[in-house]
Amino acid sequence: MIRKIVVINSKGGCGKTTLSTNLASYYASHGYPTALFDYDPQDSAARWLAQRPEHLAGIYGVAAAHSPEENITRSFQLRVPPGTQRLILDTPASLKRMELIEILRDAWAIIVPILPSTIDSCVTSDFIMQLDKEVRLHAPDASLAIVANRVRRNTRAFQTLMKFLEEKDLSPVACLRDSQNYVHASADGIGIHDMKATLTRVDREHWQDLIDWLEAEPLHSDVDPPDTEKQRSIA
Ligand SMILES: Nc1ncnc2c1ncn2[C@@H]1O[C@H](COP(=O)(O)OP(=O)(O)OP(=O)(O)O)[C@@H](O)[C@H]1O
Ligand SMILES: [Mg+2]
After folding, report:
1. d(CA 121, CA 195)
2. I need a labelling partner for 12 at 20 to 30 A (CA). Which of 95, 183, 213, 229 fits?
3. What is the pLDDT at residue 53?
4. Ligand nearest to the CA of 149
5. Confidence category of residue 1, pLDDT binned at 50, 70, 90
């Protein structure tokens, strides 16, 4: 069964593309047939994919921000190869409502990256409130999680973020540190899981929290028992 994972936040530069590309590389390198849809007209994820070395596990890419070629329908453009198990969507900061609805449809998980800054916290909190309404309507089975990104643990900014999230009852499922590993990976079309384990040990530990949440059962059960109310959470 295909699991669609949407990475989204209206705040620019919070790490949507970084999370999307690293998620895609994680799943591909762990043997899951993986697709990556880039809904950003700036094509950041598509450019990353174009850089991907051929010897690494392949990822099927679609530049979904662009209209399909002539004589091709939108649904044909958005098809994935048979057997695809994980579909990751990178999204831009700004989306029209119809685009948002297309993105959310059949989503299995929604990840909102957030940076440790007061402005990012406030903007993201407002965004989550708006997003939650659309999720209830268009992806009622999806689970939503926050990931703190570019974290430096011993800083006031991080403490402030955690306090802010705690007050809103929004605890992050993972905290990814600020690391040049992400910058290097982004430039080379790879993810931190494609890099030397010795270099990325700490980052991999942080990622495991997110992967554990994503793959948790029974929150994300492939087979729902009949007449059972499906679980949905803001982690
Ligand atoms: N954990 C991290 N450590 C260090 N640098 C990071 C980290 N996460 C993201 N970055 C860097 O921050 C910048 C912004 O990240 P990214 O492009 O993923 O954000 P975005 O939300 O996709 O931005 P946009 O809204 O413009 O699409 C990039 O240069 C990226 O390499
Ligand atoms: Mg981006």
Report:
1. 31
2. 213
3. 97
4. 1
5. confident
Burial class of residue 76, CB neighbours in 10 A (0-12, 13-18, 19+): exposed
Distance from residue 212's CA to the centre of ligand 2 (Å):
24
Is the whole-model pTM more than 0.90?
yes
Does 3.40.50.300 match the CATH number of domain 3-214?
yes
Spatial separation of the C-alpha atoms in residues 72 and 77, rounded to whole Å = 7
Q: How does pLDDT run across 158-190, given as a tens digit for each residue?
A: 999 999 999 988 899 999 999 999 999 999 999
Structural domain spans, the chain: 3-214
Choice from 6, 7, 10, 17 to test ligand 1 binding pocket (greatest atom count within 8 A of CB): 17
| Radius of gyration of the CA atoms of the chain, in A | 17
Residue 65 has pLDDT above 90, yes or no: yes
